[in-house]
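Pasting as-is:
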Amino acid sequence: MAGPRLRVSSDGHGLASHAGVSMLRELAEFVGLTRFVTQALADTYRGPWLHSPGQVFADQACAIADGARATSGIAVLRDRPQLHGAVASQPTVWRLVDRIDEQHLGLVRQARAKARERAWQAGAAPDLEATGGYLHIDFDATITIAHSEKSGAAPTWKKSFGFHPLHSYLDRPEISGGESLAGILRPGNAGSNTIADHKTLLDLTLEALPESYRPGVDGAPEILIRADAAGATYDFAAYCRQKHCEFSFSTESTPTYVGIADAVAEQLWAPAIEDETFRYKVLHVAGKIVSTARQLYLKLDSSWTPSPAIEKGWTRIRTAFG
């Protein structure tokens, strides 16, 4: 046998897995996301709620960050009441999503923008010195597979079935995958270079930025919109200039472009940070809940290498918001 033979029992107390998710829930509260979303959706309720809409929204977002691929993933939080308290059920999440019509979707987007502004003001803003005073924003579409009939799903150009959403991300090397700004859920048969969709996404992207970072505001950084060949159209380029944004569009790979990439010294390439690595090291960390007369403690495993960094990050978040 590779390791020691353990005696397994189910009588442990105060143990919690996925403890790092609590840091995200606290952050959502600190930046005002729960409060702002609750204000945005309050008029969709006829009476008092058991779970505030903002908390349900934030909890589902935390579950997605933790790896959930469906609303049922909120059970990761719900199954740990000693760590997260009362968490909404999957039907409650579904009802929340159903309340967000076109009008309230705009209000939710505004709530996210206000929460991002508070986060950036508290120290989470991008390092403009490192980018020469620019915000680099990437536009990209991807195929999302649907394994059964879903509203809006359609055959894709890759001969699969599902959706073809279009997203924008702020390029931040220190953040895995960049910082998501906006997105459009499109059917699978949506075109790759649909100009109207790119224009709409640009509008949503600029609205998602804190006001002091938007084009036309004194002291705001320059914005560079980047896209692959799908966004490389004359009309979208003109729209970028109309919105006071610069643009950089790529074209199809040719031997010339491949040769340029191959000529870049290997040490100049930076390794990407994987989402799964962040989840595994931070969000999925296990801890032990210890209760004293006046305080509740979450003790992270001292043998887990990232534990000191997690503790430091948690402390920085709480310090930033007092």
